[in-house]
Structure formats: structure tokens, C-alpha cells
Amino acid sequence: AQSVTQPDIHITVSEGASLELRCNYSYGATPYLFWYVQSPGQGLQLLLKYFSGDTLVQGIKGFEAEFKRSQSSFNLRKPSVHWSDAAEYFCAVAISGNTPLVFGKGTRLSVIA
Amino acid sequence: GAGVSQSPSNKVTEKGKDVELRCDPISGHTALYWYRQSLGQGLEFLIYFQGNSAPDKSGLPSDRFSAERTGGSVSTLTIQRTQQEDSAVYLCASRGLGDSYNEQFFGPGTRLTVL
Questions:
Q1: pLDDT tier, A44 (very low <50, low <70, confident <90, very high otherwise)
Q2: Which of A64, A90, B41, B52 has the highest Cβ tally under 10 A?
Q3: Is B95 on the interface with A (CB under 8 A)?
């Protein structure tokens, strides 16, 4: 069965600093890959997704992620963090176009002035 | 149109009582998923409906949990004889038939507290 690891439970960055959230997956082939964000009291919002093609994908809110097959990773990045980016971030995988998502445990991002 | 809606937003119940949680998917979406988000377990899949096919119930944690989807639209998740470990946020998501990327749209969730 596939699994997702987000090694960092909590990350704190200064406003304006760059951000990288790590995600590693375990699966025999290339799965569908997603990053979701959950703000306090809110539902999950899709930031970006990868299915095939260009391994660097752009998402909403200035986020991007890079798929690296050799490392089974799909790390999320943002060049300059804003205070409004403070939230919980979830990496997820699916083995096909309609199977349920398997989520990582999440990384909580705090942004300080 | 409107996104995925869930009701109630909060539910407090006593141990042993039954509860029903409702999900209204995005109009026209044929796939519907239920997930549970709890402190200890993170986000877990519960059940998945796709059109008229038999639902995938492989994520249901016990036979106290069941779900139905009437008319291919609204879904109800029922938890019988609730236990304190059922306390969690229950999230519903829907997906359109033509979406090959498996992009699921999530509702705001129902926070269930079992006393």
C-alpha cells in the first residue's frame, strides 16, 4: 500500500523567507501527487497537483512543487512566505484518477515577523 | 456554483448515541469521499462512492460506521453507538467525472465530539 511521509511536524519561518516543505511517498509507480492547505477552521484547499509531464508544477498562492522520481519526493516551495501562509499543509497521493487520497500527517507552518 | 457543504458544522453527542452527518457534493460530481481527521491518526479515508457502483468501504474502522448516497447526490455518514475515539472532524469531498487528475474538492467538515 502507498504511504506518505512528511518528516517535519512543525516549521517556523520568518515572513519574507523562503520555504520548503518535504514530502516523500512510497509506491511502486508514479502516483498522482497533491499538496493541500488547511487554514484554522477551514476545509482543505488544493494548492497544486502532479500527474505527469513537467516535474516542476506551479500552484496557487505562489507555491510550486518539484517531483523527483529518484528520491520519491514531491517537496513544496515558496520563495517568500507571507504571514497569511500560516496553516497546516498536507501532501497526498493517489494511485489513479479516482482512488481515495492517502495523506501525510501534515506540517504546521508558523510565520513570524 | 456552490462548493461542498456539510452539516452540522459541529455535533456534540453522548457516548452510545447514534449520529448522522450530511454531505452535499458539488452539483454534477459523481464521486464522493468521506475522510476522518483526528489528532492521533491524521487524515484517513473512510468510504468512496462512484456513480452507481458499489461503494468502496475499505476504510470504515468498524461496523458501527455506515454511509449511503441517495440519488447519486447527498450522502449521509452514520455512526452507531458512538465512542469517545470517534471524536474527530469528518470531511467530505467530491470529484467530477471528467477530472482525470483526481482533484477532490473538500467541504468544511463536521466536528464530532463524543462525551
A1: very high
A2: A90
A3: yes
* Coil vs helix vs strand at A79: coil
Per the model's pLDDT, the better-predicted residue between A42 and A71 turns out to be: A71
- Quick one: pLDDT band at residue A76, thresholds 50, 70, 90? very high
Closest CA to A5 of A24, A28, A20, A31: A24
**Cβ–Cβ below 8 Å for A98 and B104:** no
Give chain B positions within 8 Å (CB) of A41. 108
Pick from A32, A43, A45: which is nearest to B109 by CB?
A43
CA dist B78 and B82 (Å) reads 10
Contact B33 A97 (CB under 8 A): no
The pLDDT value recorded for residue B99 is 65
Interface size between A and B, measured as CB pairs under 8 A = 58
CA distance A71 to A87: 26
C-beta of residue A6 within 8 angstroms of C-beta of residue A109: no
pLDDT of residue B71: 81
